[in-house]
Amino acid sequence: MSDVVNQAVEALNAKMDGGFDGTAKFVIVDEGSIIIDENGARAGDDDADVTLTADTDTFKAILDGEQNPTAAFMTGKLSVDGDMGAAMKLASVLA
Questions:
Q1: Is residue 72 helix, strand or coil?
Q2: What is the model's pTM?
Q3: How far, in Å, CA of 26 to CA of 72, rounded?
Q4: What CA–CA distance (Å, rounded) separates 86 from 94?
Q5: Among the four residues 10, 48, 56, 79, which has the most C-beta atoms within 10 Å?
Q6: Per-residue pLDDT reduced to its tens digit, 46-87
Q7: How would you list the strands of the sheet with 32-37, edge to edge?
Q8: Are 51 and 82 in contact (CB under 8 A)?
Q9: Per-residue model confidence (pLDDT) at position 77
């Protein structure tokens, strides 16, 4: 896994208070993917209820609180495939 994915896993686990009710996958273009579930975040490429895809800069900005996930989606910087309700729950967990 890339350094970007490893750092993101650490940041997500520090940011989340416990796990996530469902499964989500963040795909960071050209870096790898992260699975978020009831156990927290980890590097992986498992099937998930929702898959969110963004480039490295967009993902870091969302994680740092500099980019609103909804605004990123509306402007095409973040794509969502699957359960939109799970995506919204994840956004509130990470806020």
A1: helix
A2: 0.90
A3: 14
A4: 12
A5: 48
A6: 999 999 999 999 999 998 889 998 899 999 999 999 999 999
A7: 40-43, 32-37, 24-28, 50-54, 78-82
A8: yes
A9: 97
In angstroms, rounded to a whole number, what is the distance separating the alpha carbons of residues 45 and 57? 20
Please give the structure tokens belonging to residue 8. 């993101």
pLDDT at 5: 94
Going from the C-alpha of 38 to that of each of 15, 46, 64, the distances in angstroms are 14, 14, 22
* Residues 26/93, Cβ–Cβ less than 8 Å: no
Alpha carbon distance 28, 30 (integer Å): 6
Closest CA to 90 of 24, 11, 12, 17: 24
If you average pLDDT over residues 30-48, what whole number do you get?
A: 94
